[in-house]
Amino acid sequence: MMSDDMTLVREFAASQSESAFAALVKRHVALVHSAAVRQTGDAHLAEEITQAVFIILARKAASLGTRTILSAWLYRTTRYAAADALKTRRRRQAREQAAHMQSTLNEPEADAWTQLTPLLDDALAELGEADRTALVLRFFENKTAREIAGALRIEESAAQKRVARALEKLRALFMKRGVTLTATVIAGAVAANSVQAAPAGLAVKISVIAAKGTAVTTSITTIVKGTMKIMTWMKLKLAAYVGATALLVGGAATIALSTDGSDSATGSVSSVFQLRIVLDAASADAETLTELTTNGVSGKVFQETLYVQKKVLLDQSAIQSASVSTNSFVGQPINIVIDFTLTPKGKKQFAKVTRKNVGRRLAIIIDGKVISAPVIQSEIPGGKGQISGNFTAQEASRLAAMLSKPSEK
Question: Each residue of 133-192: pLDDT tens digit?
Fold first, then answer.
């Protein structure tokens, strides 16, 4: 199913195939519409958001990587679209939506789902990308552990552990909000109710509008533009820029390198700047570290526990120079960053490391603290980049000086 999705996306991108796009819409419209309804509590607005999400898919089809998990991408885009659409009336109709859902379900499930409905998407937004993707595949698309393992390119046992761990994190987030349900009850309620049938005819309408570029209402156009701005900002904030390619996705990313051109672990355990693999579970070869992450939509800060491999793959020895600068996006605060340039050998080595670890999370560590743990989406061949980590000006200046220090090379 996962490979079929991207085959259809590539077919549409190459030839504007209406049948390919219609198949994608039919397959995923219920997921998108259900998320939109749940997040807005407004059936009419949910239809507009659903149309907007598939219009964005049509526009971005050519730029999506072959390893994109489309259902997770659509869910995330729906979240951005709903956030933009609800700027002036966020959460106004959450209680109405909960009451509506309660009337359609049996009593035991209704009680749990009524409690979860207004909280589910905010809680999912606080999870890391890997955990959220696992839950979307398991409970929104009802995938088996084997199918999830295939989509994420991990072992089946690792997929089961990832789902279980993500579900436990979700339960803890609900508990903080006063909802004390077991993980089993949460899993059952979400699996049974998170995706409901979309309105009749909506898939056909979307296929015509998005694939053919038919004119849409002003409100839908506004949602599309606002959502794409959010997506651009999230990409700027969460990606490491290497030349014209921004392919490290999932957190404010940092890059650590070695100059010897090999694939072996060459980084120093005492290095101020390290890059290490994140494992799916605790092991003797890993240490437990934590990462503080700010959700780009809700603005909430949450802490994620990571099992980071002790072996240091790469360090800062291939950074030729580093300096402090700022970047910003319309409507967003100024962000202090560190710009860097790699040595020729470092550029070659980093391309090799990213090529061999596509689909894996990397812990980006500075001064012994995890700055982020992004997922490598593709090989990164460029020689320049940017480090973003919510630094103060003083912190950024100190780190840039350390990375550029000749004695560290």
Answer: 999 999 999 899 899 988 888 888 888 999 999 999 999 889 888 888 888 889 989 988
Q: How far apart are CA 91 and CA 182, in angstroms?
A: 25
Q: Are 259 and 345 in contact (CB under 8 A)?
A: yes
Q: Tell me, yes or no, whether 120 and 10 share the same domain.
A: yes
**C-alpha to C-alpha distance for 133 and 154, rounded to whole angstroms:** 13
Q: What is the CATH number of the domain that holds 307?
A: 3.30.1360.200
Asked if 135 and 164 count as a contact pair (C-beta separation under 8 A), the reply is: no
pTM over 0.85: no
In the chain, the number of structural domains is 2
Instruction: Looking at the structure, tell me whether residues 270 and 192 fall in a common domain.
Output: no
Same domain, 109 and 218: yes
The CB-side HSE value for 376 (13 A sphere, CA atoms) comes to 27
Q: From its phi and psi, is residue 142 left (phi > 0), alpha (psi between -120 and 50) or beta?
A: left
- The Cβ of residue 161 has, within 10 Å, a number of other Cβ atoms equal to 17
Q: Are residues 214 and 276 in the same domain?
A: no
Domain that holds residue 68: 2-233
Same domain, 146 and 262: no
240-254: pLDDT as tens digits:
333 322 333 333 333
Asked if 293 and 199 sit in the same domain, the reply is no
Bridge partners of 286, per DSSP, are 309
* Residue 85 near residue 49 (C-beta atoms within 8 A): yes
Positions in the chain whose pLDDT score sits under 70: 1-3, 88-110, 211-215, 232-271, 292-302, 327-335, 376-379, 385-391, 405-409
